Prior knowledge:
The structure holds 2 protein chains of 2 kinds.
Chain A: H1 3-12, H2 19-27, H3 29-49, H4 57-92, H5 103-113, H6 126-135, E1 149-155, E2 158-167, E3 170-177, E4 186-190, E5 193-200, E6 203-209, H7 215-226
Antiparallel strand pairs in A: 1-2, 2-3, 3-6, 4-5, 5-6
Helix pairs in contact in A: 1-3, 2-3
Chain B: H1 3-27, H2 30-46, H3 57-75, H4 97-112, H5 115-125, H6 131-138, H7 142-160, H8 166-170
Helix pairs in contact in B: 1-2, 1-3, 2-3, 4-7, 5-7, 6-7
Amino acid sequence: MxxxxxxxxxxxxxxxxxxxFVRHRQECLRCAAVHERALGFEATLRHALAVPVSGQLAxxxxxxxxxxxxRQRERLRNGGLLALAATVALAVxxxxxxxxWMLPTLAVDxxxxxxxxxxxxxxxxxxxxxxxxxxxxxxxxxxxxxISFVYCCPFAGYHSVHLVxxxxxxxxxxxxxxxxxxxxxxxxxxxxxxxxSVPLAHGTLVLLxxxxxxxxQLESAWRSALEHPxxxxxxxx
Amino acid sequence: xxxxxxxxxxxxxxxxxxxxxxxxxxxxxxxxAHDLVQETFLRAWRxxxxxxxxxxxxxxxxxxxxxxxxxxxxxxxxxxADVDELEIADDRDAHAPEFAGEENLxxxxxxxxxxxxxxxxxxxxLGGFSCEEIARELHITPAAVMTQVFRARQxxxxxxxxxxxxxxxxxxx
Lengths: 237, 173
């Protein structure tokens, strides 16, 4: 690299670390001095472009997001969701008890819509899990270990808590429908997913994964959390 | 707080400042830049499922912000037509007048730059993106990006030098 090439490159990327660029800088004192001045200019340029940012910016964005989300929830609650629930209820009959055959398909559809959460692997705080269940009116005796995602999702017209539990054999999706219980425990296969639905406390626990090896252990863990010693009747807040 | 909400909060807190600065230099108006950033994050919330890699979040948000900015121009003609007339409040003026003077010169020079030179330079200096990343974002070739950031610096230095010859800017023997 000659001096002309070096100075061209200096105007393209003064922080460049290409071997030829660095070598020329080390070998040519004149270009090294130009480089020093160029870095000084870059620092001033960067400083000049860094216009002051309001300290309230992040908070105001989060407030706008929370407000918009709340409005959407209200609209759904008042209109769309009721209409959808009514349509579903009319189409398939009233209540999950009489339509438990729909549950596996609906659960897998829901999982596929939110498949991105399966990639989450970092454990979240127990408090987040408790809060999500509390929002759905359910008190947990304790929080089963190893949860990486939790969110309250409207699901087939029901309140549900959607969780992900990473296991050695792959992530397990856990859905707890808080308002209706299936008649009996059932294992199923839908669209390549293995599943299990279990009546638990006042609701239904659904487990979905590609591998069922952890289903028994997880069912037991959630039974213990939801049907705690104070009695299942007291689990509801 | 859900995981999604937690991820969103972290994005807002870590990147809203950078996006605001980028938005400001894109549109030249503080209030509008605030609105652009807010709308960008509200759209990002709805599409957060599309974000597979956190490392790519900044580029993803910049793309949304640029689209929002383009939509804004489709909808209406902004009131701040002449970006050259705008001044930025600088709370450091009182403490460091010598730097503030030089920075103001650079800011004015930036405002005088054509958008096709200003934007790649912003993405490089504020965004920290490589020429290849900028090329992808702007849908031009890496060679074109190199030419534009080269000319952007050259023009800035020329403007700062009071319009002297580019040979002086190059500082060639």
